[in-house]
Amino acid sequence: xxxxxxxxxxxxxxxxIANIVKKFGDTTAVDGVTLDIQxxxxxxxxxxxxxxxxxxxxxxxxxxxxxxGQIILxxxxxxxxxxxxxxxxxxxxxxxxxxxxxxxxxxxxxxxQDKMPKGEIDARVAxxxxxxxxxxxxxxxxxxxxxxxxxxxxxxxxxxKRPKLLLLDEPLGALDKKLxxxxxxxxxxxxxxxxxxxxxxTHDQEEAMTMATRIGIMSEGQLLQVGTPxxxxxxxxxxxxxxxxxxxxxxxxxxxxxxxxxxEIEAAELGxxxxxxxxxxxxxxxxxxASIRPEDVRVDRDPVxxxxxxxxxxxxxxxYFGSYSVYHVKLGSGKVLKAMVPVNRWHEANLEPPTWGxxxxxxxxxxxxxxxTR
Amino acid sequence: MNIQRLFKRLKPGRGAVISIPYFWxxxxxxxxxxxxxxISFAEQxxxxxxxxxxxxxxxxxxxxxxxxxxxxxxxxxxxFYAKTYLSSLQTALxxxxxxxxxxxxxxxxxxxxxxxxxxxxxxxxMLPFWTSFLLRVYAWMGLLNExxxxxxxxxxxxxxxxxxxxxHNDFSLYLVMVYAYLPFMILPLFSHLVKxxxxxxxxxxxxxxxxxxxxxxxxxxxxxxxxxxxSMMVFIPAVGEFVIPELVGGPDTLMIGKVLWNEFFDNNNxxxxxxxxxxxxLLLIVPIAFLHRFETRQLEGKGxx
Lengths: 374, 305
Hints:
Chain A is of the alpha+beta class. Helix content of chain A is about 25%, strand content about 35%. Mean pLDDT of chain A is about 85; it is low at about 1-10. Chain B has a domain at about 80-270: MetI-like (MetI-like fold). Chain B is globular, with a radius of gyration of 25 Å. The model of chain B has no long low-confidence stretch (mean pLDDT about 85). Chain B: It comes from Vogesella alkaliphila.
């Protein structure tokens, strides 16, 4: 028993969050989250505002005490440790730099708390300034820096103590869009070069997809799905994830045929059946949803063979994005289906692109839809 | 430069708005001060007003200007005045320190409570202002008197056998001074503390600073301007305070306000009183000028670097 425990300890995840619950009065902000994080992972908690992701982060930092549950970091139970006793540092949303201290003093602050000798502090601060390329701004005050520079100082400050776990709260939320995209990769490179284990909270799916090795989707205090960006996009496990990450078309209906090689769903809104040749089997009559990504939908001007995974409709809206267009096709039921069509689709077929009001036929391959049961 | 001029021309009302406080200061501070300064150079006279005029047009069109430096000479030579000024500054300084030590935790606590309760607490701080200042000092007299409420109560329950000397000494002086000036310390401190971003303390805590360390490294430095403002609001009026030392202070309490009163009303020596007041204003201007320089240096620091 002891041996078994020891053995599993060595394989244990670096950070283990076990059944964490946080209640504020009657409202449950975090509702039983269990999550394991590996060393050097960059994990993104993604969700809309009020989903509990920030509360979860604050519990990791120690600023909120969980109502129940346990947090174990590198074999140490830190659930009840005060923030200043945790080997965890956080980069705050809009940075919370100390306005009365210079850049160097901000970075040195945490080191001074550890009573590090002055020479070592100076060396570490210099190292951190180089890491974020802010050496020549060492003596500036935070208000004398641009948003991007403040972000880098905040990063340097949170990395200075070499934390076992780095928390990033909306790390790029305060930057404008262009700077944000540029900073995303820069930030990932810095984090990877330091080799720090990292949990970030964001509401920006693009930011999560670009930066994280794994993503956890949160909604209403619960962790709905955890996976790599590709897994989450290609195999969402619920409607929330499917709709939250990227864009999708959802159809609902009962399972009418469940054969080894396919399932068929009677989708009223489509006015026909959806065939799916992979994935789950389910009892007949079970209510399920089929998610079809816009880029998987094919748009034709000529009628396609009648049958499953196809429908007729009229173009209600066209959004032009340069290399592709998104067609909003209104089906007979009134449901609008989005289809992403590459611009050269029509040129290659030597066809005039369909325009508003034109009748078109939409279809997709049977391996494209993802079946969702919740 | 041209743009600036254009800007000024576009807003003709701006100058007018800015001029109001300047006009106010000119009319009610600078002009009276120069009148007092003028009187301080005159000599006592048995006339109405009871001092000589500085300028006399003599026969032959000779304008005679008489500046009497005797009052200032007397203030400088008689160490009674030096002692009194020193004692006034000391009393004001000690009052300010006590107000700061008491007021800071109060202001901090009010700033940290939730906004609904905060207004009630602020109201309570300001509530004493609804009663006349003089009345409140008299109320203290009734409390601290030899046969006042406190002594009567303690005698009645048998804690003491004879009345405590709570009145007409340094204890009663500082007690009432601190009581009277405490709100002037709390309010500016509160307005600075309430603006402070709570996440800065979280950041300090996250970086390993315990609550006490975080207070001294973050909260205290960031409330520096509030401390300066509150201290000025207490210190400056406390130096010239007359009513409290007169009513509850000890017989040997030396305060410049009392000296002023004596010169003006008892000795009817207006020039002497004016000279005493002039020196006091100069004594107060020094710390204000120091503060002002300190603040401008900070502002310049923001522009430079």
